[in-house]
Design brief:
With 367 residues, the chain is of the alpha/beta class. The chain has helices spanning 17-29, 74-84, 96-104, 123-139, 148-153, 155-158, 179-189, 206-216, 229-235, 248-257, 274-281, 295-298, 313-325, 327-344, 347-361, 363-366; strands spanning 2-6, 35-42, 49-52, 55-61, 64-66, 69-71, 88-93, 111-115, 142-145, 164-166, 194-197, 220-223, 240-244, 260-263, 285-289, 305-308. It is built from 16 helices and 16 strands. Helix 1 (17-29) links the parallel strand 1 (2-6) and strand 2. Helix 1 (17-29) crosses helix 15 and helix 8 (206-216) crosses helix 13. It is globular. The relative contact order is 0.12.
């Protein structure tokens, strides 16, 4: 069976949340005989094909970038060619270019849409895009949500309940932490701190984290890059260490050293929180916000961590103080976070669920 995934960015250009999910699906359906290509656009599309682990990244040249959307004329030609040999086309929403691909260059193959997030920020453009979006979603054979929480809170998903499935995001086990790297970070930032790792975007709640850290004086480590970097630097708090962007190996070391993972995202743009799932996999207690998305499916309030009101520095301050003052409770939550990862969020389980869906949509190709 051959699957063509379609998303706006992919390796080697980008490897953040959705790209990581695509990678895990590709690698964890391979054991069932699936061959995977991932089609995206790139400002530097040479070479056009790049091997990625056991699958292939296919890049079309990006012509324009408008409102967080890469536009490409070459994409239509590449999509037509790749879809012709695929058994199923698997789209990853949102990206309006793929709506146009499906409707202007119909592949005449079964299609799956993994619905990662509502469109939150571009509300004005959404009014123009909405008719195209619904036409695209109606054309899909199956729509997949990544958590039951998001199904309950998304007005868009409620319209497609008759063809909706829920397949939680899953991650492979993290590699062993290099002891030397661990020792270097232990000397630099210590242990037991509150950790934030991720892109420093508008919806991550970083102003709230800064104010909570200012109030409680507890040690906080922030790693990542983006528009929030200036805020962190300008705050210049002695208890907040900003590391800038870090590698995956650095991230694994920091997760081993931290006491609690803090994730104050306050808008629905944070549809699941892969970084939060990485913390659960590492066996760390978590603090997150109730925003009606998958974050509260990964982190269960009072069980694997604490879930607080969004955009509330006082609530975050108190949650941090509670876990810092009760290490036994924090560690018990951490153990349950790891158990929850093992039970619900492994890459193997996600791969099996998508394979079952692929077999349902294209039984002859799966035979």
């Amino acid at each position: 069976m051959k699957i063509l995934h379609v998303f706006k960015t992919y390796l080697p250009d980008s490897f953040t949340g959705i790209e990581r999910v695509i990678w895990e699906i590709a690698e964890n359906t391979r054991q069932f005989g699936v061959e995977t290509e991932v089609l995206s656009v790139s400002r530097n599309a040479e070479p056009g094909e790049v091997p990625v682990a056991h699958h292939v990244s296919v890049r079309a040249r990006q012509d324009l970038y408008v409102a967080s959307t890469g536009l490409s004329l070459a994409l239509f030609r590449e999509f037509r060619r790749r879809a012709a040999t695929a058994d199923i086309v698997h789209y990853h929403f949102p990206w309006p270019m793929m709506d146009l691909l499906q409707l202007l260059t119909p592949p005449h193959k079964p299609s799956v849409v993994t619905y990662h997030s509502d469109i939150v920020r571009q509300r004005t453009l959404l009014r123009l895009y909405r008719p195209l979006m619904h036409r695209f979603l109606r054309s899909a054979d199956r729509v997949v949500a990544t958590s039951p929480n998001y199904v309950q809170s998304s007005d868009v998903l409620k319209r497609y309940s008759t063809k909706l499935s829920v397949i939680p995001i899953g991650l492979s086990e993290q590699p062993p932490v290099d002891p030397q790297r661990l020792a270097q970070y232990r000397e630099r930032v210590g242990e037991g701190f509150f950790l934030f790792v991720g892109a420093l975007r508008y919806y991550k709640g970083l102003p709230v984290l800064v104010e909570a850290a200012r109030a409680n004086g507890l040690p906080v480590v922030v790693a990542g890059k983006g528009e929030g970097e200036e805020l962190i630097r300008a705050a210049s708090l002695p208890n907040v260490t900003y590391l800038g962007p870090v590698s995956d190996d650095d991230k694994w070391a920091l997760l081993q050293l931290c006491g609690t993972f803090v994730f104050p995202s306050h808008l629905r743009s944070e549809a699941f929180g892969v970084a939060l799932l990485e913390a659960a996999r590492a066996g760390r207690a978590m603090i997150s916000c109730e925003i009606g998305t998958g974050t509260s499916y990964v982190n269960l309030d009072g069980d694997t961590g604490l879930v607080i009101a969004p955009d509330d520095a006082g609530a975050l301050d108190q949650a941090m103080r509670r876990l810092a003052a009760d290490i036994g409770r924090r560690d018990a939550m951490a153990a349950r976070a790891r158990q929850r990862y093992e039970q619900h969020f492994t890459a193997a389980a996600m791969g099996e669920a998508y394979m079952a869906l692929y077999r349902e949509l294209a039984p002859e190709a799966a035979a």
